[in-house]
């Protein structure tokens, strides 16, 4: 693997079918500026969703949140079965006729969506019977329509492939903004769990309308058996991985409901919603880089360099956020969302640690998908699913939410082991443990300072004290990150400040 300090040449430019307009910048610098664009949009949407989550947690009862949790992990997660990498393959392909390539991908996406709707409709009454709640059927039926809306948002793939992030993110922002407004308004009006279901649905269809109107290519039916076989070979392992994620989500929710009731499912959903913010920077870095690494998919040295650096940069957020959740989960519940979530504190603490550690090598699968090799993704998914079913589910019944957290930790450990193996096979000389230690180090001083401060505390805990500790944690973590990673930060900033290379004037 290329050294992280090495500067390989930029000879591996995007192929001609990409038509990526880098505005005169190197691909590195253009991708770095793309991260800033995605960050600007993603920070706004993340804050919007965070505010939405806390407002809804305050406006809704634990049981209402539990109904939503059941729908998310049953109907919502089952809907993920249609996410079999059609968009990923479209980004990765190098066809000369890109309009035809998109229309073929859109056709395949439409076929998969139509097929996926059938089992979802069948699953609705089954879910109601399993959870003993027939009130799940009506909002579940509304949510199924989101699948068709998602298929109509396929034109956004075109902007993504061309790394035209401004328009891609601007158009995709319609969905969460509309969803925020509708869900909060309905929750304030006393609509209960319907506020969540209708909000998500309204947002998805608003996003679909914008995507269709602004599509660079017309939406056409272009069925081709050869293309279907190519997509099937790429997507088959990804389908297995998605199926495993469905099994994981539903097994955890079903076990929690059986052992703890709807409130237990609500606690699981809350933990998932909060820990999702740990991976926000990971998602925007991965989202920015995927088209770029597809363009240089045959240059393993450049892929190795981009993996190491992008992973370390993203973990500057993910690792401290997860650790902070573990440290301040009790304060978040007591001073924030309310003591009705007290039973979820230990689960939040464990999932915070799991989410932090889970950021190590988070984007490994992007590099295998970019090279058209998706089998490792499936094998890893099967391994973590077996681990959770064997350990996590029994622990839910014996130890409640704490047992669930331990099961999630075991699942994460198995996933890390698989990542380490496959990355060592792809990148020669890659040392996963060394990479992990370097990622964890900047967070350790802040954690130690907070734990030491708590040993010196006396009296009851107050909100000002919790805020002061959080501020100290943030300051110490930033300082430690700068001391340990300043070279990488300076390099990243250099790409951000890079100017377009102007062509030299020709002689008259």
Secondary structure topology:
Elements: H1 27-59, H2 62-78, H3 86-92, H4 98-131, H5 137-152, H6 156-161, H7 165-172, H8 174-188, H9 194-213, H10 225-260, H11 262-275, H12 280-295, H13 300-337, H14 345-357, H15 364-370, H16 375-426, H17 432-440, H18 444-455, H19 463-497
Helix pairs in contact: 1-7, 1-8, 1-12, 1-19, 2-4, 2-10, 2-11, 3-4, 4-5, 4-10, 5-9, 8-9, 10-11, 10-16, 11-14, 12-13, 12-15, 13-14, 13-17, 13-19, 14-16, 18-19
Write up this protein.
With 508 residues, the chain is mostly helical. 76% of the residues lie in helices and 0% in strands. Helix 1 packs parallel to helix 7. The protein starts with 26 loop residues before the first helix and ends in an 11-residue tail after the last helix.
Task: Report a brief summary of the structure.
76% of the residues lie in helices and 0% in strands. The protein has helices at residues 27-59, 62-78, 86-92, 98-131, 137-152, 156-161, 165-172, 174-188, 194-213, 225-260, 262-275, 280-295, 300-337, 345-357, 364-370, 375-426, 432-440, 444-455, 463-497.
Looking at this protein, list some descriptive labels.
508 residues, mainly alpha, 19 helices, globular, disordered C terminus
Shape: globular
Kindly provide the radius of gyration, computed on alpha-carbon positions and rounded to a whole number of angstroms.
Answer: 23 Å
Low-confidence stretches: 1-17, 501-508
- Tally of DSSP helical segments: 19
- Secondary structure: number of strands: 0
Mean pLDDT across the residues is 82
């Amino acid at each position: 693997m290329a050294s992280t300090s090495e500067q390989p040449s930029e000879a591996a430019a995007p192929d001609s079918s990409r038509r990526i307009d880098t505005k005169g910048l190197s691909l590195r610098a253009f991708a770095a500026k793309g991260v800033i664009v995605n960050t600007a949009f993603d920070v706004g949407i993340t804050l919007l969703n965070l505010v939405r989550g806390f407002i809804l947690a305050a406006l809704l009862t634990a049981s209402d949140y539990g109904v939503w949790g059941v729908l998310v992990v049953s109907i919502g997660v089952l809907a993920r079965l249609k996410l079999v990498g059609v968009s990923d393959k479209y980004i990765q392909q190098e066809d000369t006729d890109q309009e035809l390539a998109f229309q073929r991908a859109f056709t395949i996406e439409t076929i998969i969506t139509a097929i996926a709707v059938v089992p979802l409709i069948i699953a609705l009454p089954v879910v109601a019977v399993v959870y003993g709640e027939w009130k799940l059927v009506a909002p579940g039926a509304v949510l199924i329509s989101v699948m068709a809306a998602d298929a109509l948002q396929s034109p956004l793939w075109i902007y993504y492939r061309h790394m035209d992030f401004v328009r891609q993110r601007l158009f995709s922002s319609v969905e969460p903004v509309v969803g925020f407004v509708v869900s909060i308004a309905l929750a304030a009006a006393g609509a209960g769990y319907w506020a969540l279901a209708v909000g998500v649905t309204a947002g998805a269809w608003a996003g679909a309308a914008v995507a269709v109107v602004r599509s660079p290519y017309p939406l056409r039916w272009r069925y081709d058996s050869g293309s279907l076989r190519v997509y099937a070979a790429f997507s088959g392992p990804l389908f297995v991985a998605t199926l495993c994620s469905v099994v994981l989500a539903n097994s955890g929710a079903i076990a929690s409901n059986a052992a703890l009731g709807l409130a237990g499912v609500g606690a699981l959903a809350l933990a998932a919603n909060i820990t999702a913010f740990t991976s926000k920077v990971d998602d925007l870095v991965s989202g920015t880089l995927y088209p770029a690494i597809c363009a240089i998919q045959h240059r393993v040295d450049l892929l190795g360099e981009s993996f190491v650096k992008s992973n370390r940069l993203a973990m500057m957020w993910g690792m401290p956020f997860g650790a902070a959740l573990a440290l301040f989960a009790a304060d978040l519940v007591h001073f924030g969302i309310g003591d009705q979530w007290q039973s979820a504190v230990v689960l939040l603490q464990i999932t915070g640690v799991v989410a932090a550690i889970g950021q190590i090598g988070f984007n490994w699968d992007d590099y295998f998908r970019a090279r058209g090799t998706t089998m490792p993704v499936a094998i890893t998914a099967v391994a973590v699913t077996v681990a959770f079913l064997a350990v996590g589910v029994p622990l839910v019944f014996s130890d409640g939410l704490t047992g669930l957290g331990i099961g999630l930790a075991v699942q994460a450990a198995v996933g890390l082991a698989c990542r380490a193996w496959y990355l060592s096979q792809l990148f020669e000389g890659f040392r996963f443990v060394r990479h992990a230690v370097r990622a964890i180090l900047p967070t350790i001083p802040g954690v130690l300072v907070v734990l030491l401060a708590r040993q010196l505390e006396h009296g009851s805990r107050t909100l000002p004290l919790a805020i002061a500790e959080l501020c100290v944690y943030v300051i110490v973590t930033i300082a430690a990150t700068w001391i340990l990673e300043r070279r990488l930060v300076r390099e990243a900033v250099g790409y951000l400040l890079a100017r377009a290379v102007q062509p030299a004037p020709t002689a008259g």
